[in-house]
Amino acid sequence: MNRLREKRMQAGGMPPMGGPPGPPQMVPMSKVEISISAKGLKDKDAFSKSDPLCIVYVKEMGQDRFQEVGRTEMIKDSLNPQWVRKIELDYRFEERQVLRFAIYDWDNKSSKPDDQDKLGTVECSLGEIMGRQGSQLSKTIQGGTGVLTMEGDEVSSSKEVVTMELTGTDLDKKDFLGKSDPFLIFYRCNDSSQYLAAHKTEVIKKTLNPVWKPIIVPSRTLCSGDHGRSIKIECYDWDSDGSHDLIGECYTNLERLLEGPGNTNIYQLINPKKKAKKSSYKDSGKLHLRSISSHVEPSFLDYIRGGTQIHFTVAVDFTASNGDPRTPTSLHYRQPGVDNQYSIAIKAIGEIIQDYDSDKMFPALGFGGRIPPEWVVSHEFFLNGTSDNPYCQGVAGILEAYFNSLQTVGLYGPTNFAPVINHVARFAQAHQDGNHYFVLLIITDGIICDMPDTRRALVEASNLPLSVIIVGVGSVDFSAMEELDGDEKRLSFGGKYASRDIVQFVELRRHLGQRGGQHSQALLAKDVLMEIPQQLVSWMRTHGYQPRPPTVQAPLNTYGLE
Fold it and tell me: What pLDDT, on a 0 to 100 scale, did the predictor assign at position 528?
C-alpha cells in the first residue's frame, strides 16, 4: 500500500479512483434522434382524455428480444400528442435495427408499463424511417386507434448552448373569466422544411404580459447547430383539458436572435385563423427578446478524456426490515449461484463505474447495523470489517465484503441516510478543483427514518461535485423517496433550495422479471446512471471549470481530510 493511500485511510476517507479508460474501438455510425407524434389515439379515460406516453424499444441484429431505449414525456389529456422529448439512437446502415413504439395511457405513479393502459404499438426498422424521403414514416397503430408518425434527424455535433430570456406583451385574452395562461413551443425546421417540436417553456398563469424564466437549450436542439435554419415559435394559452388555444406564432433563426434585444427581435404573434377572417387584424400580441448569449458547453467525455476522475462509494442497508439473512425470505439471503437484490444492484452499477477507475479500489459502507464487539448501532461502518481501511478490490471485493459482513453484523435500524451522505460530502467538499467527481450508491429496503436530516444533507451537498443514487429493493411503498429525486419538484430544506438535482432514485423491482440476469442488470444500470453525465457537466459549468486537454494521467494517490 502506498504512503498517500495510508494517509487517506487514517483520515477515515474514501479510496482513490484512477484516470479515464483507454479510447473505445469505434464503429462507424451516426447518432440520430427520433421525433414522435400521434393522431387519433384511443380515449381510455371516462371523464377526461388519455394521458399518452410512448416507450421505444430496439432489437438489434443478432438479438431475439426488444430492449427499452427511451421514453417520451407524458402529455396530459391529449389524443393527438406531439412529444417534445426525442429518442436518441445509434444508426448503423449495415444492420437492421427493429424498433417497437408502445403507447400507454399513463394514469398512475407506477413506473411499470404493465400497470398502465396500453393504447397500441407500432413496429418498423430504423432504416425504414431514415430511408423515407424526409426521414418521416407514418404507420397505423396496432391494437388501438390512430396513426403514429416517426421522424428521424441526424444529431448535430455542435456543443453550443443558447441562453435567452423572452417576454410577451398585450397577448390575446383567451379565457372567458380571466386572462390567458401562456407558454411557448419552439420548433426547428428539418431538411424537408417540416417543423419538429424542440423545446417547451413553463406556463405563466393569468397574465397577458408573461415573463418566462431563462430558456437554456443546445443549438443542436433548437436548429441542428445551423444559425440560419428557420425556427418557429408558437404561443399557446394553456387549458387543463389539453385543448390549448393558439394565441399566435412567429418565425426567426438563431443568427437573428444573436443580434440581441432591439427592434429586430420584437415579433408580432400572428394567429392564421384570425388573420384570414379580419382584414383589419394586426397581431395577437408581441414577443420580445430581453437577452441572449451562447457558449460552447463541453461534454461529459471531454472532462473524462481530460483526466476528471469519478470516485465511487457503496452504502448498504443493514436494518432488520430486510429479514434474517439465514432465511430464504430475507432480501439479504444468499443462495449459491443466485444473486439477491443487493448483489444485483452492486454488480449492475459497479461494473459500469469501475471502467473509470484505474486501480479498481472502492470504499463500501454499511448503515443500520450493530457492530461487534460492542454491538452498538452504526450508520457509517466499513463493510470489510476494519476500522481504518474502507477499500475493496473491484466489484468482486465489494461483494465479498458485503457477504462476509452478513455473518458478523447484526441487522437492526433505523434507516438513516444522512451519515453516509455527509461522509462522502466531506471529501467532495475538500476536492472542488474540477478534477474529481463523487458518486454515492445507497441500496435500501426501507423508508427513510431521518428524512429532515437527509433533506438537509442533500441540499447542502447539491453545491458539491457529488451525485447520489438510491436503489430501492423489496416491495415496500417507496413513494416518499420521490421527493428526494428533484425531477418533478425542487428539493428544499428550511427555506433553502438545492442548487441542482443530484439524486436519482430507481426501484429495483421495476427491472426484475424482465428476462432477469444480465439483461435486468443492464436496464438497471441504464436507468440509474443516465443522469450522472449531465449532473457532472452541470456542476463543472456552474463552477467555471473547463476540461483539460486529453492526457494520460496517473491515478489520484490521495485526497484525505486536511
Answer: 78
Q: What angle do CA 134, 135, 141 make, to 5 degrees?
A: 115
Tell me the three state secondary structure of residue 456: helix
The CA-atom distances, in angstroms, between 402 and each of 17, 314, 347, 363 are 20, 10, 12, 11
Whether 30-154 shares its CATH topology with 310-542 is answered no
Q: Please, are residues 441 and 412 in contact by the beta-carbon 8 Å criterion?
A: no
Place of cell 371523464: 47
State how far the Cα of 146 lies from the Cα of 151, in Å rounded to an integer. Answer: 17
The C-alpha cell of 181 is what?
A: 395562461
159: Cβ contacts below 8 Å, ≥ 6 apart: 218, 296, 297, 298, 299
CATH 3.40.50.410 assigned to 310-542? yes
Q: Is the pTM of this model over 0.90?
A: no
Beta-bridge partners for 158: none
Q: What is the pLDDT of residue 540?
A: 94
What nine digits make up the cell of 526? Answer: 441504464
d(CA 377, CA 368): 6
Number of residues that this document lists for the chain = 562
d(CA 453, CA 437): 23
C-alpha grid cell, residue 58? 430496439
Q: Which residue has the cell 426525442?
A: 86
HEC-encoded secondary structure of 479-516: HHHHHCCCCCCCCEECCEECCCCCEEEEEHHHCCCCCC
Residues of the chain under the 50 pLDDT cut: 1-29, 514-516, 552-562
Give residue-wise pLDDT tens across range 229-251. 999 999 999 988 888 999 999 99
Residue 538: closest CA among 213, 352, 299, 313: 299
Domain extent listing, the chain: 30-154, 160-296, 310-542
Res 486: pLDDT: 61
Q: Which of 439, 442, 456 is nearest to 14 (CA)?
A: 439
Q: Convert the pLDDT of each residue in 510-544 to its tens digit.
A: 777 544 455 566 677 777 787 888 899 889 988 99
In 3D, which of 212, 78, 142, 115 has the Cα closest to residue 509?
Answer: 115
What would the grid cell of residue 252 be?
426567426
> 3-state DSSP call for residue 258?
coil
CATH superfamily of 30-154: C2 domain (2.60.40.150)
Q: Cα–Cα distance between 365 and 444 in angstroms, integer?
A: 12
The CATH homologous superfamily to which domain 160-296 belongs is C2 domain (2.60.40.150)
